[in-house]
């Protein structure tokens, strides 16, 4: 539903989600409305992430959530402190610590002394954490193949190439999307 005030969109939420506002108006150059692009990109992202987690749940990772995947990426292969994880995710040290605690409880991560500084604790992925990331990568490959089957392999490659052209390289793989939603 789109709220109208004097024929202007106040709340740009689209009923059918397919590019029309319901009044037959189209955006520039015969495409969708400007606000639809980020919503469709986010919808595609959300669809992939939701399908990934549904599959992971059936494959032995029922408690793994999207935030956990981002946190495991932030931990990385070398490990990281809670402060480093928080910075990489764009959240507070406390918020990162809470997510890390959950990963510890689920067996995806472990804490250990930093060999370079005994005052610091590093978080490392466990074999279960690495296995979940490896399985996620394989599932993402399968989901991409499904999109290629539905849209055509050339269109998916063109979409990826087009996004690489407009997404700045330094932000292409940033993990701090949570900061958009008001987290410190």
Structure description:
The chain has 184 residues and is α+β, with helices and mostly antiparallel strands. It has a two-stranded antiparallel ribbon with strand order 1-2. A two-stranded antiparallel sheet has the order 3-4. Residues 1-5 and 19-23 have low confidence and may be disordered. Strand 3 (109-114) and strand 4 form a beta hairpin. The protein has six helices and four strands; from the N terminus they run ββααααββαα.
Would you report the number of β strands? 4
Mean of residue pLDDT values: 84
Shape: globular
Per DSSP, the total helix count is 6
Strand fraction band?
5-15%
The gyration radius over C-alpha positions equals 20 Å
Structural class by SSE content: alpha+beta
Distance between the termini: 31 Å
Main pleated sheet: 2 strands, antiparallel
Strand order of the largest sheet: 1-2
Q: Roughly what percent helix?
A: 40-55%
Low-confidence stretches: 1-5, 19-23
Could you give the order of the helices and strands? EEHHHHEEHH
List the helices and strands and how they pair.
Elements: E1 2-5, E2 8-12, H1 36-58, H2 66-75, H3 82-89, H4 93-106, E3 109-114, E4 117-125, H5 127-151, H6 153-166
Antiparallel strand pairs: 1-2, 3-4
Helix pairs in contact: 1-5, 2-3, 2-4, 3-4, 5-6
What attributes does this structure have?
184 residues; alpha+beta; two-stranded antiparallel ribbon; two-stranded antiparallel sheet; 6 helices; 4 strands; 51% helix; 13% strand; globular; disordered N terminus
